[in-house]
Amino acid sequence: MAEAFSPELLALYYDRLFPYDQMTNWLGYATITGPTELLYRREFSFTLENDQYLRYKAFRDADEFKSAMKKLQPYKIDIGAVFSVSVSPADKGKVDANKFIPEERELVFDVDLTDYDDIRTCCKEANICKRCWQFMTAAVKVLDTALREDFGFQHLLWVYSGRRGIHCWVSDYPSRMLTNEARSAVVQYLTVVEGNENTKRKVILKDPLHPSLERAYSILEPMFYDVILSESGQDILGSPDSWSKLLEMVPDEELRSNLHNKWLNNSSPPRAKWSELKASVEAIIKDKKRKINDERRRNLRTCLAEIVLAYLYPRLDANVSKQRNHLLKSPFAVHPKTGRVCVPIDARKIDDFDPMQVPTLLDLERELNAPDDKKNAQTFANYVKFFESSFIQPIQRSLIKQKKTLAEAQAAVTGDW
User: Fold this and answer.
1) Contact 402, 172 (CB under 8 A)
2) Alpha-helix runs per DSSP H in 253-392
3) Is 346 designated active site?
4) Which end of the chain is more exposed for a tag (fewer CB within 10 A), N or C?
């Protein structure tokens, strides 16, 4: 069986398919700053075949970028910040270190399936399948909505990491200029699940729920049964060990014990167990004769939402997002373990995205060599076209509008119409 990744296939990809023009158009934000100035101050890093790590690479244009990629054949490509000096990051040793600081950077997010290993029952570590990929589907739905509605961001690029996760690049001008402190605040706002595999209550909510959490719950609750509870999902209610962890989130010891013992003595399906839990919680809340304090009653009101969010709310790698100078794998890079390309994802169609169908280098070689009437309908060109039409072009229109607004403001001050 042919390998999905090899140096020869990688060389072919860098020579004939990698979208250099589109990538430099994006990262140079050329419409407002010029095609070289901003791009030339942008850091790229390469990891080569022998694990040699090269930082502070920079390029003036797509041709320089392509020439370096073809020469070095990096196994991994990372993108960093735009630095404050007018020289290339490659010349950082020639300038005052105090003046060489990251000045601009997309706001980025990284969600990885390994952070769900305490609740995944189908796969562990680097392995993935359609069942656990639904955690990533849930993450995109929640984060995309929050970033757009709560922060007003418009230019979001979702990218498959090539193996077991997703990345998000937020490219609005205000997001690129955020300080480290502001980035940390955004991450904290979007962090709900905390603790480790030994933490019994990973989500702590207050009644009434914050509007953003109410919205997240409305997105995730309809997915909860199929993804988490059902036998075709994670089957969390299928064994005492897994349902015990779920019941630990219910703040009523008597109820936990009753349900645990009852489920041990019958083989009711997951939907029946979940309905029984919900009905029992609601009954306690409404039972005015039952002597429970106000705090316990408030905790019971939020415990069902806490359970849903503990299993399905996005689990961010916070360190990736907090620092301007943190590097992140480039879109359209290739994962050397799987051979899969890190392709853009349409968040509006995230339910249809299947990581197993993402093209590998071997797929691309076959596509290049196939006659026109035999080419796959889901060609690599479609991913590049989506990247350009849904992400780069809207950014450029926004930059043109921004440039026009600045010019009009300046003319109003100077009277030079």
Assistant:
1) no
2) 253-264, 270-286, 294-312, 318-322, 361-369, 380-387
3) no
4) N
Type of residue numbered 357: Q
d(CA 169, CA 182): 16
Yes or no: say if 31 and 399 are a contact pair by the CB < 8 Å rule. Answer: yes
> What's the predicted TM-score (pTM) here?
0.93
In a shared domain, residues 132 and 234: no
Active-site residue, 317 included: no
Asked if 46 and 176 sit in the same domain, the reply is yes
Question: Would you call 43 a catalytic residue per the annotation?
Answer: yes
Nearest to 113 by CA among 264, 273, 314, 307: 314
Which stretches within 104-210 are classed as H helix?
A: 130-149, 173-176, 180-189
How far from 251 is each of 248, 257, 297, CA to CA, in Å?
Answer: 7, 11, 9
Catalytic position from the list 43, 78, 172, 365: 43
Kindly report, residue by residue over 194-209, the tens digit of the pLDDT.
998 889 999 999 999 9
Task: Check 78, 106, 110, 365 and give the catalytic one.
Answer: 110
Please tell me whether residues 308 and 330 are part of one structural domain.
Answer: no
| Residue 167 and residue 265 in one domain | no
Name the residue range of residue 258's domain: 211-312
Q: Say if residues 396 and 31 touch (Cβ distance below 8 Å).
A: yes
Instruction: Given the residues 78, 112, 115, 363, select the one marked as catalytic.
Output: 112
Does residue 366 sit in the same domain as residue 330? yes
Q: Which residues pair with 168 in a beta bridge?
A: 109, 158
